[in-house]
Specification:
Shape: globular
Low-confidence stretches: 1-5
Order of helices and strands: HHEEEHEHEEEHEHEEHHEEEHHH
CATH architecture: 3-Layer(aba) Sandwich
CATH topology: UDP-N-acetylmuramoyl-L-alanine:D-glutamate ligase
Largest sheet: 9 strands, mixed
Number of domains: 1
Mean pLDDT: 93
Length: about 325
Amino acid sequence: MTRPANVLMDATRARDLIRAFSGQPVLVVGDAILDRFIVGRVTRISPEAPVPVVKFESEHVRLGGAANVAHNINALGGRATLIGVVGNDAAGDRLARQLAASGLDAVGLIRDPRRPTTEKVRVVTERNQQVARIDYESDADIGGDVERAVLEAVTRASGAAKALLVSDYLKGVVTRPLIETLLATKASPAVPLVVDPKIPHLAYYAGTTLVTPNHHEAEAATHQRIRDEREAAQAAEDFRQRTRCESVLITRGEHGMWLSAPESEMAIPSVAREVSDVTGAGDTVVATLALALAAGATRLEAAVLANHAAGIVVSKFGAATVTPDELAATF
């Protein structure tokens, strides 16, 4: 069932769609995360415990989660609007500044003084090897005034969007009323709603256009192994039936992707040439999918473009982005 990428979509069509990304409005809603990296050299083992001693060299921050999805959309030429929740804290301020530095508007960040901004602090060596990670987070669902503010912001913004995207990192922003509001307020039935899912929320995604589990999530949701294309096809069909979504795209790492949609069911082979870091690759996939659908791509064409974008981003360190020129050059 696997076909070469150039059979699935020719270079002319791919580049036409990539040019059409420009200015497409996409609403991104979900768990915004601040990724902080502390970089240093490991020269010895601590005498206090059997752990490496990292000599500090530098620190930098990047956008993660829904914020990284929005960043990817803008980097590809689209126009992302981000709605998320942060704490009333220094990390929330830093996330807002990082959004502004990346050309994104922070007005969609809703402050919740009862929870911390979701922040992942990674200690890494100068060779990009991760030593430890510290997470600051609350995974309790938003509610009360904060949830009402999120739903009101979604209602105001969804009518202007050509595609809607939910980035679910299970940090409390994605609730059933959120999905219901997105489905009810989008401009027309033709506007796609793409979801990067988490297994505990599968029941929320009924009626959505395209859900993108990785192979581990698909296995967990369907209680079956995925070792080849036949098993991927069965898992995708079972996933569609369980969630009652329209289409499923299972991402399978070096094995590529499996698309199950009403008009297409097939394997999409991986195009990654060198894998440096898979952090944030799922963000790039859903960002490219939503932007391509907004630009008029079919679900198969959007999946092929997303597959190529993922092949680029995994060659970079940390949560990274892809430019239109980089993506066009792969066809």
